[in-house]
C-alpha cells in the first residue's frame, strides 16, 4: 500500500484550524472534533491526578519517616501509608491515566467516536467506585474508630487479611478496565467496517495489543481475588493456599508493569518523534515490539518468585529465559526512540555525533519530560537485568534495591511520561491553553534530580542488605555495610530526593489545576495534535503483524506452557491446602 | 520489509546480550553451583507448626540446630515477629561446613535474609524453604525479615553466629 493511504495509518496531518464562511478561523483540536471522548479522557486524567497527589503525599511521609528525618505517624501506621502509596500510584494513577491516554489515542488514530455511551459510563463508574472502596478501606486503617482496614500492601499476600471491601474495590477497578478495553475494540470494529482493507492505525494497534495482554494477565489476579480472597475474607471458605494465591498474583504482577509501561511506549513511539521535530523511524518495528510484549509479558511471573519455596527450579529457569528475551522489545525501543530524536534534531539542522542532543527542545516540558523519562528508563532497565538474573537476584531480592528499580520504571518511565504528555494533551482535551508554563518547564528537571538522588541511594542500600517495606532505619542485631558510600549519606539522599519528588508532583498539579481553573475555553492552544507519518510506514511490513487473533492464540499457548504444570502441581494437593486461616492485618 | 542496517546491527547485538545473560545463569548453576530455593523442602500444614506438633511431620523438626552424620541441619520457625531460633538466642553454626537450613511459618508470609549476603528466601506458610550454605569465615550475620508481615514487621530480626568447628556444639541428633 502506498503512502497516499496515509490517512488510514492514523498519521495524517490534521487540520487544526479551518476557514469558516465568514472568513474567520475555527479551531479543530481533539476536543472540538470529539467532545464526548475528550470529556471521558479528561475525567480519567483528573481522577488519575487526584490519586497521584494523595499518593505523592504518602510517599513524602514514608521517605521522611524511614530515614528518621521527620516522623508524624507511629511506625505501625507506616504500613497503612505504604499500602495507600502503592495502591493509589501503582494501581489507580496508572489505570486511570492509561484509560485517559488510550481513550484519546484510539479515538484520534481511528478517527471514530466511541460507539456506546452507556458502556463508557459503565466502565468509568465501575473503576471509580472500585477506587473509592479500596482507597477508603485503606485510609480507614488510620482511624481506630472505623472498624475496617487493609494494611496488606499492594501485593496483599494471604494470609494477611484485609477488609472484604478492599478486595471488592480492587476487583471492580480491574473489571472496569476490562470494560474500557471492550469500548476500544468496539470502536475498532466500527472503523474496520468502514475501512475493510486498511492497516490498523498504529496507535490503535498499540492500544489493542496492550489490552489483549492485559486481559490475558489480569485474569490471574481476578481469579485470586474473586474465587479465593473475597470468599475467604467474608468467611465463606476458611482457608486459602498462600503459595497458590501469591502465584496467581505474580502471574498478573509482572505483566501489570508492562500495562504501566506500554502507554509510555505509545507516547515514545508516536508523539516523542514529533516533539523532537521529526518523525518515527519505523512503523513496522513498533508493531513488532508490541507483538513481542503481548507474547512474552505473561509467562515470566515466576521471576518474582525466584526465592519462593515450593516451586521447582525448572519453572524458574523457563521464566528467566522468557524474561531475558523480553529485553528485546525494550532494547529495540531504545534504538527507535534515540534514532527518532536524532532524526528530529537533524531536521532542525543539528550536526555532530552527540552535539545534536543540545539542539533538542529541552525548554519545552512535553519534550524534556518524555526524554528524561526515557533516559531514566534505560537506567531502570539495567537494574531490571540484575533482578532478572536468577543467581544475583539472591543478593537484592526484597531489599530496598527493588523499590529503587521500580521508581525508575513505573515511578518515572510511566509517571513522568504521563505528566509531560499532559502538558501537550490536556490543552487538546480541554480547549484551554496551558497555564504556568514557566513552572511546567522546570518541573521535569525537578523530578529527574529528585529521582536520581533517591533511586541511586536505594539501589546501593539494597546491596548493603537494607530491606524494603520497613518503617525503621535501624535494627538492633543487624548492621548494614555499605559497598559504596555510607548508610547515613544514602538516608540523606533518600530524604532530599523524596522531598524533591513531592515538590515536582505539586508543581505538576499546580499547572494542571491552573489550566483547569484559569485557562479560557476556546483559546489558541500553542500545541497541535498532528502526528507526521513515519519514515518507513506499515505498507512495507507483512500483514500478518496485524493478525491479533493469531498473536493472542500464541500468547495463550505460551502461558499454558509456562504455567500449566506448575499450577497443576499447586492445586494437586488440594485447591485450598496447605491452607492458612486469615490473619487480620 | 525494510529494516535499516543500523537497526539490524542493533537487533543482532541485543540478541547476543540476551544469550550472554542466560549464559551467566547457566554458568552460575553448573560452575559455582548456585542452587535455587525450590520444592525440595516439601509442604507442611501451618496449623501443625502453630501448635508445635513437629512430631507429626517428617520434613520438619523442633526448631534448633542439629549436628547429624550428614552435616548440620538448622530448623527455623519464622513467626510474627521473631525467628525461633535466631531472635532471642543466635543461631550458632560452624565455619567451613555445609549447613542445611529449613525455614517455615505458622502464620503469615515472612522473609529470611542474612543482610548483605545471598542467603535469602521467602518463608511461606505451608512450604518449607530448604537451602544449603557454607560459611567460609567465622563472624556474625544479622537476619532480617524482608517481607511485610504485620504492624510489628520492623522489629523482626535475629542473628547467625558462625564459630570455629572446635567451638561448635550442635543439639542432639
UniProtKB/TrEMBL annotation, chain A:
<feature type="transmembrane region" description="Helical">
    <location>
        <begin position="367"/>
        <end position="386"/>
    </location>
</feature>
<feature type="domain" description="Cytochrome oxidase subunit I profile">
    <location>
        <begin position="45"/>
        <end position="545"/>
    </location>
</feature>
<feature type="transmembrane region" description="Helical">
    <location>
        <begin position="250"/>
        <end position="272"/>
    </location>
</feature>
<feature type="transmembrane region" description="Helical">
    <location>
        <begin position="550"/>
        <end position="568"/>
    </location>
</feature>
<dbReference type="InterPro" id="IPR000883">
    <property type="entry name" value="Cyt_C_Oxase_1"/>
</dbReference>
<feature type="transmembrane region" description="Helical">
    <location>
        <begin position="406"/>
        <end position="426"/>
    </location>
</feature>
<feature type="transmembrane region" description="Helical">
    <location>
        <begin position="43"/>
        <end position="61"/>
    </location>
</feature>
<dbReference type="InterPro" id="IPR033943">
    <property type="entry name" value="Ba3-like_Oxidase_I"/>
</dbReference>
<dbReference type="InterPro" id="IPR036927">
    <property type="entry name" value="Cyt_c_oxase-like_su1_sf"/>
</dbReference>
<keyword id="KW-0349">Heme</keyword>
<keyword id="KW-1133">Transmembrane helix</keyword>
<feature type="transmembrane region" description="Helical">
    <location>
        <begin position="207"/>
        <end position="230"/>
    </location>
</feature>
<feature type="transmembrane region" description="Helical">
    <location>
        <begin position="123"/>
        <end position="146"/>
    </location>
</feature>
<dbReference type="GO" id="GO:0020037">
    <property type="term" value="F:heme binding"/>
</dbReference>
<feature type="transmembrane region" description="Helical">
    <location>
        <begin position="494"/>
        <end position="518"/>
    </location>
</feature>
<keyword id="KW-0813">Transport</keyword>
<keyword id="KW-0472">Membrane</keyword>
<dbReference type="GO" id="GO:0004129">
    <property type="term" value="F:cytochrome-c oxidase activity"/>
</dbReference>
<feature type="transmembrane region" description="Helical">
    <location>
        <begin position="166"/>
        <end position="186"/>
    </location>
</feature>
<feature type="transmembrane region" description="Helical">
    <location>
        <begin position="438"/>
        <end position="458"/>
    </location>
</feature>
<dbReference type="GO" id="GO:0009060">
    <property type="term" value="P:aerobic respiration"/>
</dbReference>
<keyword id="KW-0679">Respiratory chain</keyword>
UniProtKB/TrEMBL annotation, chain B:
<dbReference type="InterPro" id="IPR034214">
    <property type="entry name" value="Ba3_CcO_II_C"/>
</dbReference>
<keyword id="KW-0812">Transmembrane</keyword>
<dbReference type="Pfam" id="PF00116">
    <property type="entry name" value="COX2"/>
</dbReference>
<dbReference type="GO" id="GO:0004129">
    <property type="term" value="F:cytochrome-c oxidase activity"/>
</dbReference>
<keyword id="KW-1133">Transmembrane helix</keyword>
<dbReference type="InterPro" id="IPR002429">
    <property type="entry name" value="CcO_II-like_C"/>
</dbReference>
<protein>
    <submittedName>
        <fullName>Nitrous-oxide reductase</fullName>
    </submittedName>
</protein>
<feature type="domain" description="Cytochrome oxidase subunit II copper A binding">
    <location>
        <begin position="69"/>
        <end position="173"/>
    </location>
</feature>
<dbReference type="InterPro" id="IPR001505">
    <property type="entry name" value="Copper_CuA"/>
</dbReference>
<feature type="transmembrane region" description="Helical">
    <location>
        <begin position="9"/>
        <end position="30"/>
    </location>
</feature>
<keyword id="KW-0186">Copper</keyword>
<dbReference type="InterPro" id="IPR008972">
    <property type="entry name" value="Cupredoxin"/>
</dbReference>
<dbReference type="GO" id="GO:0016020">
    <property type="term" value="C:membrane"/>
</dbReference>
<keyword id="KW-0472">Membrane</keyword>
<dbReference type="InterPro" id="IPR051403">
    <property type="entry name" value="NosZ/Cyto_c_oxidase_sub2"/>
</dbReference>
<dbReference type="GO" id="GO:0005507">
    <property type="term" value="F:copper ion binding"/>
</dbReference>
<keyword id="KW-0479">Metal-binding</keyword>
